[in-house]
Amino acid sequence: MRRTLRAHGRRTAGVAALALALTATVQQPARAEPTTLAEVRAALQRLYHDAEVATDKYNAADVKVTRQEKRVRTLRAQVGAAERRLTRLTALAGAAARAQYRGGGLPAEVQFVLSDDPRHALENASLARQAQQGTQLVITAVATTSRNLRADTDEASDVLNRLRANRRTMDTERGKIEKHIAAAKRLESRLAASQRRELDAMDTKDANDAQAKWVSTGILGKVGTTTTAAGKKAVEHAAKQIGKPYVWGAEGPDAFDCSGLTSQAWLAAGVVIPRTSEEQWRRLPHIPVESMRPGDLIIYFSDASHVAIYIGNGEIISAPRPGRNVYISPAGSMEILGVVRPEA
Asked: Is 246 helix (H, G, I), strand (E, B) or coil?
């Protein structure tokens, strides 16, 4: 009995020591220190969830910078084109004025008196004045357009600089999150093999219990089993990625994060969708869970921090978290926020 108690004490002390190391490394604020394997598991889940939330925010910041860089390039190209046109028109106007000067440039009333055909002279003078006025109007309009474009470019550049500054801030946050992930991985690596198996068993049991509860509602009798050609392509592309590692911020071809996988799956089907799970939830059409079909995207957790592609038969393909690979898992194993359909 004493031997059993000593073994149990060593096991508990080992978990507590690892928990203390985790708490010290990631500086969890004002949170009770985990002392059991279940509490260590909860701490790991928090770390990985925080990492996924940070991933989504970083990806969103990166998308905004890329989009704004494209807008600034477009505006700069338009400014260049407008200024080249303005230079060309100004040169043409100057050439016309010089030609008129070399041709005499007589006032209309003199040309009227001296011309053999006074009516023709009057028409020529009127047309000349109209041409000069028209050219000047065009030059003024182009100059105004050029000024407006330069102002738009300056404003867009200011926005771009702010977005880049925000992305640099996100880079700092990324460093913190990566340290958290590394701490979690070190913690897992220090666990005894039996403890790691126990953690895996806890994860599997929770997933199976959640799936069983979800299936017990009769949902699988309602959801669709067939899909469109595009939906089929998206599912097939996702299936080809099974076994590839989760890397946060990655969108293939060798590694993925959760929304990188879903956005690339639908891109392979010819449909461009937002890059992040949060934007996929915000911008794609929502459909009832019971109306989903293979190819639809299931958004998880109240903060829309995770996404997977539904493949039918109550299963999904997803890139789960750091340290895991793209895999097939039960669709109801996590808290479902809702379902979106990339195809309008």
From this structure: strand
